[in-house]
Amino acid sequence: MKLIVSAHGMLAKEVVNSAGMVFGAIDDLDIVTFVPGENAETLKARYKELIDSYKEDEEILFLVDLFGGSPYNAAFETVIGQDRMDVITGLSLPMLIDVVGIRTMEEDIKADEVYDKLSGDYVKSCKKLLGNTNKDEMEDDEL
Known about the structure:
about 140 residues, Rossmann fold, 4 strands, about 50% helix, kinase, PTS_EIIA_man
């Protein structure tokens, strides 16, 4: 499966660079940046150029930053009607690491199956975690 990572500014490039610190070089991944002065049509043209360079039956998964943003909108328009493609929003380093791990472990996974495999547990609060721990400790002390 090919991954296309796209986001506003240099976010996609930097998330991929950071993921490379964990995984090393990540194969079958392309980056599409979106900078001021560009629009969804620019992105769609870049996406099409990449897709045209892939095998015709290759599964393709877009990872983009914001639901409703230009990278998402262009990817959504590209994916509509394509069984071998999907788009997932909320790009982050933990998400990319999760997706690359899933793709590595399940070589034949389809693009539209990845979302259901994601842990999605990327947001944590230290204070909330500590608060729950402290509350548990207090309950244990009371026993």
